[in-house]
Each structure stands twice: as C-alpha cells, then as structure tokens.
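Why does residue order matter? Because the sequence determines the fold. Keep that principle in mind as you read this record.
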Amino acid sequence: MKSLTIIILLLTSCCPVFFQPENPGVDYRWQIELWQKKIQKEGWNETLIDDVMSSCLRLAKYEQDCCDDYWKTYQEFLEDFKGDCEDISAFMFGTLKRLNYPKGVRIRIIRMPLGDHAVLMVELPKGRWKLFNSIPMPGNMFDIAISRTIVEWDDRNIYY
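Structure:
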C-alpha cells in the first residue's frame, strides 16, 4: 500500500523528477549521433536500450494533459519535448524507430487505480519483453501488478 501511495503522489504532484534540460533538442540530436555510432560499433543490447529510454525520459518534460487528450506525434513532440504519458511513450517509440531498432516496440495502455496510463514495451535482443514507464520515477516504483492492459499496439498491429 505504501508504494501505491508514493505512485499516486508522484503522478499528481509537480515532482522535481520532471526536470527538463535547457536545450533538449540540441541534447537529443547529440544523443542520436552517439547512439548511432554505438549501434554501428557494438550492435543493440539491453544496456543500450536502457540508456536510450532513460535519456528520452531525461529530455522529456511531463505535463499532465488536463483538458483535451490530444496525442502528439513523434515530430510534434520534438518541437518542445513536453507532454503527458502518451506523448512521451510515442517519443520513446519514435526514437527507437529513428535508430532502426530491429525488434518489436509497442505502446501499451494500462488501467491503473487512478486512471489509464501509457507505457512502452520493448522486445530485447534476446527476445524477452521489457516495460519502460513513460513518467520518470526514482527507482523502480512502477508496479505492473496493480494494472491491467487495455490495449497495446505497434506500427503494424493492435493487440487486445
């Protein structure tokens, strides 16, 4: 119950973990170049995927969508690097696609105690799927056990 309380507080407050760098676009372009070089040199591995996902979260600023639930495209998100969980999931998805990630990537909408939430599912190079939260949280406080999948999709299929 304590972890649920912490999650609720983080999702509903202006927590300092939602910090955004001064020039996220410049940082992002620089990161893309570094990742491309690393992919050419070493190939894809779980550590690199973790780095890409955590860097995306560091660049993005979470802003709760209070009125209309417009989902930004990857290109729209790159204009200001701000959005809610769906926008950040699309940004993380788009980043992996931009880097020509060869495995599966899916956006999953889950039902949480306080409402629906978007996360990213990534198929790792060895075939296992890993969930990445679209909201930066310290440690591993996101508990998939208290959620239920509503829908999941990639760039080809919808999975219920």
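The chain is about 40% helix and 20% strand.
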